[in-house]
Give the backbone structure.
Amino acid sequence: MSDLKLTPYWWESAPLENASSVEVPASADVCIVGAGFAGLSAALHLARAGRSVVVFDSQRAGEGASTRNGGIASGNIKFAFDDMIKKFGLDRAKDIYAEGIAARDHLSAMIKAEKIECSFQMTGRFTGANHAVDYEKQAREVDVLNKHLDMGAEMVLKANQLAELGTDSYEGGQIRPDIAGLHPGQLHKGMLDRAAGAGASVISETRVRKINKTESGFDIITARGSLVARDVIVATNGYTDGLIPWLERRIIAIPSQIIATENIEPKLMDQLMPKRRMLGNTLNLYNYFRPSPDGKGIIFGGRKGADTQDLVKKTEGLQAQLVELFPELKDVGISHSWWGYTGYTFDYLPKAMVHDGIHYAVGFCGSGVVWATWLGLKSALAILGEQDAETIFAKYPFQTRPLYYGKPWFLPFVIGLYDVKDKLNRLRYG
Ligand SMILES: Cc1cc2nc3c(=O)[nH]c(=O)nc-3n(C[C@H](O)[C@H](O)[C@H](O)COP(=O)(O)OP(=O)(O)OC[C@H]3O[C@@H](n4cnc5c(N)ncnc54)[C@H](O)[C@@H]3O)c2cc1C
């Protein structure tokens, strides 16, 4: 692995920009903390509506999760639809799904309207069932998705699986036609350019240290000076730090890891990923994977090993999973390996809400390509006082738990438990 780069594959064709010399202005209508998809989506809309906007990021803009992810645009919630019906009731479950569809449509419309070249393609997603019981569960979900939402989801029998994926490791699987793929680095760069073009100031490598509420708004103290703003949006998701302890107690930062392969022979790519779809499986520590946007290599992600800090060990662990799935890749090198933080909530629902006068768009639970863009926009609409600001997620309280202060001490146990469950399922179901 001597040539292995420990930076995201996406940065090769969409390099991050270093800090600009933009001065911190004395005031702005809106101050946004975090220059990922959520912060920039809000910034773009507010700047277009004529508001003065300043966005701060303590790293380079995009260096959080927004240029580190798999680029799978799903707008999913972490529950299967039938589980969601049990948890929330049919009407609410349908409303949540409908918002996911609206959010995905918005993302694709925004990319088109803004002319952002980011290889957006409505590829659909195939999720392989690791065990026959998983296949049955997927089939039940397909029934309810099609019955209540007319989704056009399908099941693929193991006998027909090679048309989807060049492996017999799965017991068949599920196709969701409504899920897309894109290049997250290029999407982020496009949003950054459009937000700046609309007049937003994006000040990177500048941490917001404190936000003090005043009679007319907020005093914001940053590492490079202070400003006053009438409104504040916090869009820090999995990179939430100690800035607002209330928020820190509500976000669980969970690492996720991705590897990218060297180029693969085109004929082999055609065999392994004939339809060039987005892909996944049903493990508790599941994998998400896909062809690179140019179709020449594979991007393969997962959480196995997320409890260790050793990047080489994590890389080897993911590569072993990839080769187990596709033994043909045993001699194909890994070009990039990287990781980042996803931001989870205790109820697995994303959040766009106001607390103590501050707007929050956070908690995308590993599906922020769609949700961050959408809920960043919702925060902007709320500041503008527009009716479209409504979101179903505002109806759910932002929960914390006793003894949780922002350091997920329980994560190694949970990841260990999921790993054991996956191993036991393998022994039990083959
Ligand atoms: C490895 C990985 C794979 C993923 N794969 C997918 C996928 O395939 N599909 C999908 O939909 N989602 C995926 N996600 C999740 C998705 O990337 C995130 O949900 C999304 O990018 C969140 O965007 P954001 O704008 O909310 O936050 P981020 O992009 O994480 O940005 C938050 C920013 O806030 C900044 N910040 C924090 N505190 C401060 C402060 N005090 N002052 C100034 N700045 C601050 C940070 O520096 C950071 O840059 C993945 C995430 C990871 C890590």
